[in-house]
Amino acid sequence: MATQALVGKAGGAAGSVELAPAIFEAPVKPHLFHAEVRRQLAARRAGTHSTKNRAAVSGGGIKPWKQKGTGRARQGTIRAPQWSGGGVVFGPVPRDYTHDLPKKVRRAALCSALSLRQREGALLVTDVLDVADGKTKHAVEVLGGLGLDGEQSVLVVLEQANPGVERALRNLPWASVLMVAGLNTYDILRRKKLLLTRGALDAIHARLSAAENES
After folding, report:
1. pLDDT tens-digit series, residues 29-60
2. How many domains, in total, are found in the chain?
3. The whole model's pTM is what?
């Protein structure tokens, strides 16, 4: 079982914690990243795009000129696609882009992303993370003490909601906050560093271990 150094509030070592091999030493599989990120981004699409075909465009109920004798091409309506202001042929219509992946695949992709960050040395675990006053300036100082100075983006994962930390970090473009319940592959991969609190690490172990037992 791998161990991870526990970083104290001042940035020094504060002991170590054990990492579950099935979660933080899983094989890194890029094809799972592709499948899961594609699923997540597809689910975020509104799917509200719409166009009108010739039946939906108002007007055009009368034949613009008679069928024969004018020397012009025959036309049945001024709302046909070749006319300016006419309907659209095979245009987009409202649809749902979501698609499913098996739970085993989604879990494997998440474990693979966590393992990737651990393998890269981009995983940090801290015993405490608190910004009681909710000030961004204070949050920058706290992260700086942990070796996170904004040169690389970071995802902060908390065990439960912490209004002070969430409010303090929301103004930092290089940092984002998630609860363990919302931890996902896409957000791990889009940030270069992963910062977990000790409670969040325990919660991740519990969540993914329970998912493994269910499968």
Report:
1. 999 999 999 999 999 999 999 999 999 999 99
2. 2
3. 0.85
